[in-house]
Amino acid sequence: MTLQGVSIIGSRRGQGSNSAGKSINPTNNEVIDPDYAAVTPEELDMAASLAAEAFKTYRDTSGEKKAEFLRAIASNIEACIEDLVVRMPLETGLPEMRVRGESGRTCGQLRMFADLVEEGSWVDARIDRAQLDRQPLPKVDTRSMLRPLGPVAVFAASNFPLAFSTAGGDTASALAAGCPVIVKAHSSHLGTAEIVGLAIQKAVADCALPEGIFSLVYGSGRRVGQALVSHPAIKAVGFTGSYTGGRNLMDLAAARPEPIPVYAEMSAINPVVILPEAAAANGATLAEGLFGSLTLGVGQFCTNPGLVFIHVDAVEGIAVKLGELVSASSSGTMLNSSICQAYGAGLERLKNHAQVQILAEGLCGDQGNQAIPTVFQTTAADFISSGNLTEEVFGPATLLVTYTSDEELIRSFRSLGGQLTASLHGTNSELAEHVRLARVLEDRAGRVVFNGFPTGVEVCASMVHGGPFPSTSDGRSTSVGTMAIGRFTRAVCYQDCPDVILPDELKDANPAGIQRSEV
Amino acid sequence: MTLQGVSIIGSRRGQGSNSAGKSINPTNNEVIDPDYAAVTPEELDMAASLAAEAFKTYRDTSGEKKAEFLRAIASNIEACIEDLVVRMPLETGLPEMRVRGESGRTCGQLRMFADLVEEGSWVDARIDRAQLDRQPLPKVDTRSMLRPLGPVAVFAASNFPLAFSTAGGDTASALAAGCPVIVKAHSSHLGTAEIVGLAIQKAVADCALPEGIFSLVYGSGRRVGQALVSHPAIKAVGFTGSYTGGRNLMDLAAARPEPIPVYAEMSAINPVVILPEAAAANGATLAEGLFGSLTLGVGQFCTNPGLVFIHVDAVEGIAVKLGELVSASSSGTMLNSSICQAYGAGLERLKNHAQVQILAEGLCGDQGNQAIPTVFQTTAADFISSGNLTEEVFGPATLLVTYTSDEELIRSFRSLGGQLTASLHGTNSELAEHVRLARVLEDRAGRVVFNGFPTGVEVCASMVHGGPFPSTSDGRSTSVGTMAIGRFTRAVCYQDCPDVILPDELKDANPAGIQRSEV
Fold it and tell me: What pTM did the predictor assign?
């Protein structure tokens, strides 16, 4: 496939004006053709207008048709997997196996939403029929269901070039809800975005849907990203990235004449607690599990365990084994040089912190942008008093915190912001005695993990990949799993509405054949 | 009942320091004893601390127990109905019948939420069981459900001293969700708030629940209201009132170190469209219906129809009849002098508007704070070009807008902000030809009404009393009906969680006996 290096505007291609740069191979810092052209303001406006126009019909497109479309996207991505296997490792340093695995997850996610909307009951249809003889006043007929919000802006993530990017979870859930999508590509993997973007563009044509359902734009976050979020046609935003980037979009969206919801998944250090009996009984196994979770994907997962609380009397076994594993480990190539520089700065901060000791670090390889696995240690008392050890260090680093009592542990948690996950390891009897601690963890997280590590997010109906601020902008949401579709909807009530105007899901005869709550 | 004029802080009473003023009888502007003491910062902090402490157990209180509590509140309100019948009309100018009616609605609402949480399936429990033999990796057990957010601040509304105030919809839905509540009383009906607050305080004691579940505080919005929303223990806000007040709270909540959701129901002009065949066929009936909706409760409902689009060729019959009804109507006492002054200013603005004609106005009575029903008229062309006719005039005033084509009608709608409701009148054949117009109305509203008027909000499962900004701060929410409970929750996922720690709703044996989605 020959990449053209320009935006996708509905069924067309942009021309662009300024350069949005080239991708850079993080293993050797070499630039990769082609040069990408930033979307022009006129092209962006065209994408938004096409999206608004497409929404007029896509909002009422049947679940069957949306399912066909989502499955067509998945098939078209699979059809270009060999192009992705060539391009994506060059841009990201990620191995071929990861490309195939993440592509599988991405297509699986698209098909999961296809199944969801084909079945159709997700709209939470509620029907309260009229009661004309009710006293003192007759009751009108009211019916409600979830309806799509309108065009959605999606910001691709650096660390999941497929599963959280062009055709990732935000795009899949918005398209499933009935919302057109405009994706802003991430500067780290411009070509991967184009390959996937073309697969979606082709699916729109394959299914004879209005072209404005999908566009993909290139350009800087500051200029293009902000213009997108400020555009009056845009009704919601999905974002995965840094706290600074997410917070900027939150503030921008809140200051619009018509504020719109922003679903930003931002930063987390995913605390892990290991209770003493579990630590004593399974120290080596826990150290191995922690090491695996910590170094998975060179530590570049939002669920990376950056903080591990272990009772001081039981820390030694785990610390020794983890130290051995980390010392014998090798560095890995990070996704890009800014992530690598930020990781280096984070390590320096911890190395120079008076209350933190370095426990172990791995070996450095000879490619570019290497992240060396590193483990630090401190005490809960120092953790609480210093107050500046709660910031995410994005990469394969973690901080062991030794605590002396449950009260100290709970105080430590109180100093933490919201998290995507919190994990608790304990024997059966320890867990039974720590229900209150589990609720303290729950207060800080969207997902509470027991006797496991936080990396590895199941894509299923009960998954919550979200959590209180600042892990996300909106702790009531999830960006993974079927519940993610709810983010791009609002309930609408139809009162005494004729059947001909009601959406199919609410018509008397229930032509969509869905489950409804009826009174 | 002797009113004490101080805040309710859990099971105690505040002392207060500064005065928060007295209620004023709007019919004669006389002040009514007692003087109310503003809550002190220490008392407010005590209320917040008690709420946070109460949340530790109330979050896990069973649906049965919460139902008992909500029903106890309703019974205790009914037990003091004669006190309310004496006090509330003095403070609000509302008639005894309204006190009894609104009390019935308030208690009905509390019992509706009691039924909802007693049944229990509202938590959207989802269970994806482990699959240990799944390839390439085993699947963990994940379970999710909606869990309460934490203590909620509720701001009482001026216009519904019972149904949207101390024990109103926000309080009922937050308590049902498992969240403690701190209500800030409205300065218009201080005594009504105290009577209802004591009924809730007694219900907490009757049910042997932790005292911090409920507090009621007095004081200014600027000082006490802002301190409440800024308090770190508060996790969500419910508000019904003006755009300015709501927007201030939104901005304050968004600027907190930990931003929290604000559900503010603010302002709406609830456009009504009357298509020409319907206008020609039923002009007199439509005029009567519009007059009734317009003047109900002296026009002081958030669903008051402030804007009526009628085809120019069919306007005459309705305009003449409506003019007759309004000219023969009498003014009514408004809730307080600031609402009355704002209404007067709104009328003056329209009377002095070059593109607006006055069609009819009612007669003025001799009590204080009178609102005279008034109807204005303009053309859609002038409505669109002037751009300043979309502001709410809170009271019994409406603006007829004559349009010449569906395109002009749609352009008029595009200039409107979000609304609580939009109404469409047409014959069967007209409605069948106006599906696209219905979608334009839907884009601007939370509830779309057909051949009816917007006042009269059913309290039921399918009701949406919400709508796009600026009608509310969060167009994904409703403040009436069972869906309102969702506002004070977030989904939490438990991974491989032992039964002893899982909330009852997710335990293997399903002791709560609720409907769950299981795979």
Answer: 0.97
